[in-house]
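Entry — protein

Goal — fold tokens:
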Amino acid sequence: MPVFYLVFLLIISQRLLELRVAKRNREWMESRGGVEIGADHYPLMVLLHTVFFVSLWAEAALRGYPLSNRWPLIVFVLITVQIIRYWAIISLGPYWNTRIIFVPGGEVVKQGPYRFLRHPNYTVVILEIALIPLLFQAYVTCILFSLSNALMLRHRIRIEETGLAQHTDYADTMGSRFRFIPKSPEK
């Protein structure tokens, strides 16, 4: 049980810190004329992620906080995924946000993990929503929220890519990259 609480508090702390960074970046973007699109789905996305953690806690508690026998592999992959998350955040700099905001004159980021795929941060979220519950054998949470997240991302990515195509050279820059699976950059 202490391992669960440690991991749970670490992830929640990480999310709260990211929300602070997103708020700061949002203010920076808005001060430069940034415009948010797709705001109507944002509360649902926040709700999905909040209920994910509640479900994870409840299912793990009901099962007695079991740690997977494959925990070393899962933890290794989770750490790798976190490295990719922060690589993506650092690569986007002040343009990273949990909301979809476009700044006039902003350019598509082509560095960091964006050299290899269009949506590294969403890839990270997909993996986390599967791996964190698997770490504690919370299989119902894993399946239910992986499916719910897939529906949310389908909607969100459609909005984001439409906005990117309207406000940037996204289609020319990122058109040959896969959304979630790395691909070698073209020379």
Notes: The chain has one domain: 2-165. The radius of gyration is 17 Å. Residues 59 and 138 are 6 Å apart (CA to CA). Strands lie at 35-37, 100-102.
